Amino acid sequence: MNYPMALLAALMLLTGLTAKAEDGYDLWLRYEQAPVELRADYNSQISSIAVLGQGATIAAARQEMATGLSGILDRTVTVGTAMPRGNALVAGTYDELSGLDLESADVGPEGYAITQMRRNGRVLTVIAAESEIGVLYGTFAFLQHLLQGEPIAGMELVSRPATEHRLLNHWDNLDRYVERGYAGQSLWDWHKLPDYLDPRYTDYARANAAIGVNGTSLTNVNANAEVLTPQYLEKAAALADVFRPYGIKVYLTARFSAPIEIGGLETADPLDEEVQAWWQTKTDEIYNYIPDFGGFLVKANSEGQPGPQDYDRNHADGANMLADAVAPHGGIVMWRAFVYAADETQDRAKQAWEEFVPLDGEFRDNVLIQVKNGPIDFQPREPFSPLFAGVEDTTLMMEFQITKEYLGFATHLAYLGTMWEETLDAPAERTGEGETLTVTDMMVSDNDDYTVSAMAGVANIGTDRNWSGSIFDQANWYAFGRLAWDPEQDAETVAREWAAMTFTPEAEFLDPVVEMMMGSREAVVDYMTPLGLHHLMATGHHYGPGPWVDDLGRPDWNPAYYHKADEEGIGFDRSSTGSDAVSQYAPFLREQWDDPATTPDELLLWFHHLSWDYEMGSGRTLWEEIVFYYERGVQKVEAMRTTWDEMAPYVDAERHAQIADFLAIQEKEARWWRNACLAYFMEVSGRDLPDGYDVPPHDVDYYKSRHFPSAPGNG
Ligand code: BDP
């Protein structure tokens, strides 16, 4: 360092300029100093602190407690290892805490109980769990309670996850490209692994443990067999070692043709004994590297990926072969239901159901069928996938997409908690006794400690300093974890928690911001695909509108296939007079959705092709209604911008400005969506806009002429 540099560094130290910038890196682990009155309460309640026990997970809990409380209390907090004195906070397993004669709460293998008690004139705040991971989860819950500005006095909290497997799915390639990634490169620096362990791996694990995520599938579902070679297994094992103390298991995607590509076999036929033996040996090898390896995630016979059907076998044959290989080690196979065959001409929305329902009961117990929330593909709104009520003897799990491939990438603010809540709570089935079962109810776990089998979220995480490409996209990662832990949790509570910890717990900030978040996904639906429209995005990268596209290789890649607009009307007829996809739902839904008069507006054009003059419940014609929705979407974004501008006093300048800029992009693009779609529908329908609406500033040809060959996320 030369002299002026040294001087500058010294100056920066003195003036505090080296203090970390508010760039979003800390996520929900932003342990800022609590307001003075709260700190007084906290200090009096917990004058000494200990985390009892010895394992690596306990060490992580102790470290987190020290870091968290030092920040919140604004002093150096030491966390002891023995029962503390005075008013104290103590965390540990029930075994470690046996001296306290606690009544053990029903916390299960991963849950925790936080409670306060009086002992010999002192107040003890106790975090107790059956397991070390429960202690870590309890530690995070305790810190989050403080970050949300709550008092410690009277704290009572019992929580255990409903869902057994709570996983992120990274669509990350080995060259660090992230498919549908809008937040930089893959976090996994394969080239430097296993020798260099980026500290971000630990922070990734902390952030996930803080929201209860307990598994991560490292690699893209469009898989590369290379990751199953020893060279890469060693690297994956190094990541697994970092994640283990945080309760996170590693999973890998298995390319079905791996026996040919890296095994030198001539076939990957799942009924071939050599192939089966190859997978068994390969799996044993993986478990040598990663003793607690979680299992495989597989995309087979979908969008050109290899699979059992290449050998005239079915999905059960393929999944069971892998399931048998991991079963002796306690592993699972998550076999994706996102399939649509290359030569299939019928309604794509029906295909997964048709392929999987006939196989009901044929999958091994350790196979979970991973179903996307909707029957098409992560659209801004879809009805839930009919598979969720289609099978009885197959374990189903949910796949949500956290990364916003179809909801504006990283720059549009769309809080997805509401979308996932809508799916999880959707009535899916009715029992003989007339009881209504929700989608969540259909993902039954066969492990008695849990009620729900598994939930996966396609991650929105990358090397961007803020991890998710934007601050508000962090909320989606957060919400995924919280809803996976408890699918009955309401999206608004989750939004509130997140906003309090990410910014400030002040009500003057939280009330408007949470309201903005709660309406944000619906705004996107309005300006992209209102009233049940879907897949109008430009093809390939899916950036921006492309409702006119109708010339791609196969019909169901074209937006025009999904909206079917012509001079007469618009919408995809999936009723009994059309593709009859409606028949895949339970009778009570089938009945409701088969008739446009009883179909909710949100799903109207998903299930019906209707005249532009169709009269809506609002009194407007369908055409007027479509225009009204597109316009409303833009207006909602304008309102979001106003709300955010008013929040400047509560948010640091750096994050406030970035969010404001992104909202400006969102408004510009919402307008683009509105104008392009309306210009196109005006042309197709031969109609003008109703009075009072601005005519799109350009004709359709202009919108068609816009190309974005390098838009992110598409290879
Ligand atoms: C689609 C994505 C594609 C994925 C595919 C999948 O466009 O990149 O590979 O889903 O889920 O939404 O397999």
What is the compact description of this entry?
The protein is an alpha/beta fold and 715 residues long.
Features:
8-stranded parallel barrel; 37% helix; alpha/beta; globular; binds beta-D-glucopyranuronic acid; disordered N terminus; 5-stranded mixed beta sheet; 20 helices; 715 residues
Walkthrough of the structure:
It is an enzyme of class 3 (hydrolase). GO terms for molecular function: alpha-glucuronidase activity; xylan alpha-1,2-glucuronosidase activity. The protein has about 725 residues and is an alpha/beta fold. Helix content is about 35%, strand content about 10%. The protein contains 20 helices and 17 strands. The protein has an eight-stranded parallel beta barrel. Strands 1-2-4-3-5 form a five-stranded mixed β-sheet. It has a two-stranded antiparallel ribbon with strand order 13-14. Helix 5 links the parallel strand 6 and strand 7. Helix 3 (about 55-75) packs parallel to helix 4 (about 130-145), helix 13 packs across helix 14 (about 505-530) and helix 18 (about 620-645) packs antiparallel against helix 19. The longest helix is centred in the C-terminal third of the chain and has 33 residues, at about 655-685. It is globular and about 80 Å long. Beta-D-glucopyranuronic acid binds near residues 222, 377 and 378.
